[in-house]
Specification:
Number of helices: 5
Largest sheet: 6 strands, mixed
Shape: globular
Radius of gyration: 23 Å
Strand content: 35-45%
């Protein structure tokens, strides 16, 4: 019997392609600050980029369709007094973004639905507690309004953004700078990589280290550690010879890695981006001009190299689009936003398929925009996996998301004043006779809004189809 030489995988032929120049975001002064974050955050509505700014820190927020040259006078988000080091979009509200800065604060911002018309300098809430610069911000994957921040004071705070309070402070667990923090799939555990060369698995609500591994990578340069969907941990770092490594670990037993692979001797930090639906990890080295991607499976050697996407220009940072922002009609399985010195260039990863039908093997149900838990429930000890949505209809999730943003502008309403809380309690205690009619009116309004969003999205979809057909007609005419 012949031995199978080539491993079977539907992702073996994934290829990357940079978009045309007119679809890039040009003339952007990308931040030069010395910090190993990605400098870019993306969601299905906006791309946010940390930029050079005098007299404090700032970042741009651009609607995805605003490509081409960006005017120097374009409004920015500019409330920090020190350089912005990290930004992260809320997974449950596409108009809310958090930023961490050298000024030791975390700020949460509400972006107008159609983007910025004037510069935004007043955040919805300022979260103060760190004594040194804040280099990492990360939203909880399934609980609304729960935000993590990690600073150079070696502390991790977990905030209830709705009330502006620090609910958890993990202060004596890391003796040195924290390089990365990653939530598990349902957000019950954290995985951290620290300058002391240890990878730790932490239960934040019990303030307890569940597992740790000393010298996960023996090199002195920064490591990264992320949780995978099955609970395993994927790390990138350097060995003693300063060669870049990647490794896979079982959370229950961190003594020995499942596998370790040497990559090359470049000195750029490897930023891992993980897709839990396809189990593909994309590695983007800072200062590299390539994106390598690997598929993680249960078969040895467990981490399978797929391919490398290369360009001539080195990358200063990288943004990664959530699955619900991809074009399923083109078999797009990932989209990156690569930062150059003066521009941002989208890169599309595609699986070549001949059929125009929806490819359900490429697009299993993915995490949607609705939170599973409220902040108070999570802090009380509840857990819940992400609420999954189908991508089959392509744009259905967009309708729900828009409506959700309108309904749950939680951040604008909280923190409530004491007087408001008292009146709310009084209303609850003695319901007015008109409350029923008010509820009916609200339900009716929601229904009308839903209908309006549905029609609007249908019109947008038809416009895109018409544009596509016009392109095809033009090609035929030529």
């Amino acid at each position: 019997m012949l031995r199978r030489v080539v491993r079977q995988s539907k992702f073996r032929h994934v290829f990357g392609q940079a978009v045309r120049n007119d679809q890039c975001y040009d003339d952007i002064r990308v931040s030069r600050v010395t910090w190993d974050s990605s400098f870019c955050a993306v969601n299905p509505k906006f791309v946010a980029i940390i930029i050079e700014a005098s007299g404090g820190g700032a970042f741009l927020v651009l609607p995805l369709q605003k490509t081409g040259r960006i005017d120097k006078a374009y409004p920015t988000v500019c409330g920090h007094t020190g350089q912005v080091l990290d930004i992260d979009w809320c997974p449950h509200n596409d108009q809310v973004i958090a930023s961490g800065s050298e000024d030791c604060t975390v700020m949460v911002w509400q972006i107008p639905e159609n983007g910025l018309e004037t510069s935004l300098s007043t955040p919805v809430v300022v979260l103060e507690g760190h004594s040194k610069r804040v280099g990492i911000v990360s939203w909880h994957p399934t609980a609304r309004n729960v935000l993590l921040s990690a600073g150079c004071d070696n502390q991790i705070f977990i905030w209830n953004v709705g009330t502006g309070e620090a609910m958890i402070n993990l202060e004596d667990m890391h003796p040195d700078v924290i390089f990365s923090v990653s939530w598990s799939r349902n957000g019950n555990l954290l995985c951290t990589a620290c300058k002391d060369k240890k990878v730790r698995v932490i239960d934040p609500r019990k303030k307890r280290i569940v597992a740790e591994k000393d010298k996960a990578h023996e090199g002195a340069r920064p490591m990264r550690a992320i949780f995978l969907a099955d609970g395993n941990i994927f790390t990138t770092g350097f060995n003693r010879m300063s060669e870049r490594q990647l490794a896979l670990w079982k959370t229950e037993n961190l003594d020995e890695p499942i596998c370790v692979q040497e990559m090359d001797s470049s000195n750029g930090i490897l930023l891992p981006f993980y897709d839990p639906d396809t189990n593909i990890v994309y590695l983007c080295g800072k200062g590299d001009s390539s994106i390598r991607y690997f598929e993680i499976t249960d078969e040895s050697p467990y981490v399978h190299y797929l391919n490398t996407f290369s360009t001539k220009e080195p990358q200063r940072g990288m943004g990664y689009m959530p699955k619900r922002g991809l074009d399923v009609n083109k078999c797009e399985i990932a989209r990156f936003y690569k930062l150059h010195e003066r521009k941002c260039e989208p890169i599309i990863m595609t699986v070549p398929r001949k059929s125009d039908l929806f490819q359900d093997d490429l697009y299993p149900d993915t995490a949607g925009p609705d939170p599973t838990l409220e902040a108070e429930e999570w802090f009380a000890g509840k857990n819940g996996g992400p609420i999954l949505v189908s991508l089959k209809d392509g744009y259905v999730s967009t309708k729900n998301r828009d409506l959700k943003v309108v309904k749950t502008n939680v951040l604008e309403n909280k923190p409530a004043t004491k007087a408001e809380n008292i009146t709310a309690v009084q209303k609850h205690a003695s319901p007015q006779p008109s409350a029923v009619s008010v509820n009916k009116m609200e339900d009716k309004l929601e229904e009308v809004l839903r209908e309006f969003k549905s029609l609007r999205d249908r019109v947008i979809l038809q416009d895109r189809r018409i544009a596509r057909l016009e392109e095809q007609v033009a090609k035929v005419a030529i």
